[in-house]
Each structure stands twice: as C-alpha cells, then as structure tokens.
Amino acid sequence: MTVRRLTEDDWQTLRAVRLRALLDAPESFYQTYGESVALTEADWRARLQAAGKVTLLAESAGNPAGMVLGVPAGPDERDPDAALMLSMWVDPNFRGTGVADELTAELLVWSREQGYKRLLLWVYDAAPRAAAFYRRAGFESTGRVDTFYDATRPLTLMSQTLERV
User: Fold this and answer.
1) What is the pLDDT of residues 37-57, one digit of tens each?
2) Containing structural domain, residue 67
3) Is Phosphoprotein found in the keyword set (predicted)?
C-alpha cells in the first residue's frame, strides 16, 4: 500500500476515483454524481492546483484503493488554526485493510507540515462505522452538531490535536 499526493497531471485519476466514490456512497458527499460527471478537465485540474490543499490517493498494486482531501478549515468550523479532512473514501474491496489508517496518517503529516494545530472532520451521525474509525484514529467529538445542506442529516464535528514531531 502506498499513499501519494496527487498533482494537476493526475486529474483523470482523481475524476475516476471520485466518480466511483459517488456511485458507491452518494450519501457520504455533498456533491452528486451528476454534478461531478459534468465537470470539465479544467475543473478537475483546478481542484488539484488549489493552493493550501492536498488530495491523497492510496494505491495497492497500482490500483486506487481510497482517497481523502485536506483543506484549511473554513467559516463553518470556526477554527483558523485547523485543517479539515474531506471526502474520505475507501474502495469496498479494500475496506478493513488499513487504507483509511494510511490515508489518515498521511493527512496528519500534511497538516503538521502546513503548521496546523488541529485536524477537524465532519461525520454524519448516520455513519456510526465511520465515527468509530475516527475515534480509534484519535479524533474526539467537539460536541458540536450541525446540518448544512440537509436538515435531516446531522453532522458531528470531530477534532484531533496535532502533536509537533
């Protein structure tokens, strides 16, 4: 298993993996498959060019096994000293094999490199397996629950303090 940071030239890989993720777990993402499939090459490249952001891809024997994004926390998180984990997805064939652990570990490395004090994430209350993984990975609930785009789908904000290495 390897984890690498995608570059602008990896736009086709990002597109393919993201579309697979949206078909596999549409309830886990804000953007829909229909919205994503309509994006142009320039849109995908722009996602990978954005300053201060990272897209990580886990691969096993050259096959995409999962991905996660890291971005600066925004106004919704109200924490300028934090990075935000977005769009964690592991291919069903690789679930339970440590892919999420590897992606999380590399995102923690990136977050420290960027000088962040915390790594945050939002997890759907309807996704107890994901929340259990994040707790095992060292995240704690902040006690904050919110609904952004769908009032019927509450999200809990979780946080991990980043130790300086």
Assistant:
1) 999 999 999 999 988 999 999
2) 2-161
3) no
